[in-house]
């Protein structure tokens, strides 16, 4: 797509009229007079997600417990079914993916599986700017092994308080490091780490490496097969639009199928002997063997509908538009807002930024709150970031233009100064 952006009000109309993904917007529940820029946190509901959730409810109402055998046991084997739909989005084989649990539970599962400390190699390498649940899990897992996180958790900090340096991460891959666990895209800065570079070195040094893809899946192209990392985890309610609390996913590289999971559950047992109800665990030797309990159908059905849209749109087209529409947003910010104290807090290079733009301002919280009062839905991340995510499948260029015009008006009038300091539970 042409990156020679123009300022005028007719330009976004031109872009929308020539958007090959524009028709997908009609398949989402877009609220009139609301500019939704929060798909990086919770994606909008699609009509397909609604349809498939209702279908699961109808089957339950009609079949009761017999629903587990309905449609060739689709719901009993729902993880396998959804893994097949998920595989092209992350570039993995379907049997390397399990759609299960929540991100936090899945991190516990993979760390408990791959963290096998020895006297000389016992540290887990992380950063200190990722979403904190990852660190909570790592700290608790090293404690379960009898270590103190102050000793066994090795932290790499950003070089300027914001961005991570891949070379510094690699320099910290010392012989005492057993596992490296990092995010692909950072929630606060949208920075993309060079997964290929980091993974290659980790493997050369005999270090297990895994990735948190939560802010990456559905926004950027990923190929886990080419990457050949040991494991990965991700949620499905952000760019994938699976619904609030929709089931998360994990990836286990097929070369590890012979390993036992760190935590056993009856749904990781071999399918053919599950209902033999034996007291000894028989591991299903693919990613489904890392499941714990029964599939949470109500939190998976919406994802089925959402993934059907992704299969039609294709990740290459989605990433192409995402880069273009976020580029347009950054162009308008630089053209109209910099003189009012705004700045762009993410890298501008395509290879280094995910699917959202990090708009910074000293009064970011108050401006974010004012945006919501004006019909714009962003989110705020302390201390000074307004995250804005024009999502390729349902946001328009006109919305981006209107968003910046509203921000300009807020800045010029100073209306954000009327916002108090009391903050709601979820900001």
TrEMBL record:
Pathway info: Cofactor biosynthesis; NAD(+) biosynthesis; quinolinate from L-kynurenine: step 2/3; Amino-acid degradation; L-kynurenine degradation; L-alanine and anthranilate from L-kynurenine: step 1/1
UniProt GO BP: 'de novo' NAD+ biosynthetic process from L-tryptophan; anthranilate metabolic process; L-kynurenine catabolic process; L-tryptophan catabolic process to kynurenine; quinolinate biosynthetic process; transsulfuration
Localization, UniProt: Cytoplasm
Cofactor(s) needed by this chain: pyridoxal 5'-phosphate
Keywords noted in UniProt: Cytoplasm, Hydrolase, Pyridine nucleotide biosynthesis, Pyridoxal phosphate
TM ranges: none
Protein name as catalogued: Kynureninase
Family: Belongs to the kynureninase family. Belongs to the trans-sulfuration enzymes family.
Positions of post-translational N6-(pyridoxal phosphate)lysine modification: 238
Reaction catalysed by this enzyme: 3-hydroxy-L-kynurenine + H2O = 3-hydroxyanthranilate + L-alanine + H(+); L-kynurenine + H2O = anthranilate + L-alanine + H(+)
Keyword flag Hydrolase: yes
Coiled-coil spans in chain: none
Subunit organization: Homodimer.
A GO molecular-function annotation: pyridoxal phosphate binding
């Amino acid at each position: 797509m042409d990156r020679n952006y123009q300022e005028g009000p007719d330009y976004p109309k031109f872009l929308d009229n020539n958007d090959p993904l524009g028709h997908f917007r009609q398949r989402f529940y877009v609220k009139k007079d609301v500019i939704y820029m929060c798909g990086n946190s919770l994606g909008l509901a699609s009509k397909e997600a609604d349809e498939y959730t209702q279908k699961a409810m109808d089957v339950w109402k009609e079949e009761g417990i017999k629903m587990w055998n309905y449609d060739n046991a689709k719901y009993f084997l729902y993880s396998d079914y959804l893994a097949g739909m998920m595989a092209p989005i992350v570039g993995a084989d379907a049997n390397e993916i399990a759609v299960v649990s929540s991100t936090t539970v899945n991190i516990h599962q993979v760390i408990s599986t791959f963290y096998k400390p020895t006297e000389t190699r016992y540290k887990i390498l992380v950063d200190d700017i990722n979403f904190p649940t990852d660190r909570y899990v790592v700290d608790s897992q090293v404690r379960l092994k009898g270590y103190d996180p102050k000793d066994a958790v090795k932290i790499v900090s950003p070089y300027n308080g914001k961005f991570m340096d891949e070379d510094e991460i690699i320099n910290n891959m010392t012989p005492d490091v057993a596992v490296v666990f990092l995010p692909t895209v950072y929630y606060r800065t949208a920075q993309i780490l060079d997964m290929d570079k980091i993974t290659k070195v980790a493997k050369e040094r005999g270090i297990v490496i895994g990735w948190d893809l939560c802010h990456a899946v559905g926004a950027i192209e990923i190929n886990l097969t080419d990457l050949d990392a040991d494991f990965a985890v991700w949620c499905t309610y952000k760019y994938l639009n699976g619904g609030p609390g929709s089931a998360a996913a994990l990836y286990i590289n097929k070369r590890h199928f012979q390993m036992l999971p760190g935590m056993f559950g009856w749904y990781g047992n071999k399918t053919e002997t599950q209902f033999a109800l034996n007291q000894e665990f028989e591991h299903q030797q693919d990613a489904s063997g890392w499941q714990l309990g029964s599939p949470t159908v109500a939190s998976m059905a919406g994802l089925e509908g959402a993934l059907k849209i992704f299969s039609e749109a294709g990740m290459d087209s989605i990433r192409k538009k995402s880069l273009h529409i976020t580029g347009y947003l950054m162009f308008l910010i630089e053209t109209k807002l910099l003189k009012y104290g705004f700045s762009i807090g993410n890298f501008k290079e395509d290879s280094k930024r995910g699917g959202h733009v990090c708009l910074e301002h000293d009064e970011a919280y108050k401006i974010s709150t004012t945006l919501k009062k004006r019909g714009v839905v962003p989110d705020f991340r302390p201390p000074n970031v307004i995250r804005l995510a024009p999502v390729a499948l349902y946001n328009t260029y006109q919305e981006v233009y209107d968003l910046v015009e509203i921000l300009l008006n807020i800045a010029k009038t100073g209306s954000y100064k009327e916002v108090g300091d009391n903050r709601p539970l979820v900001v």
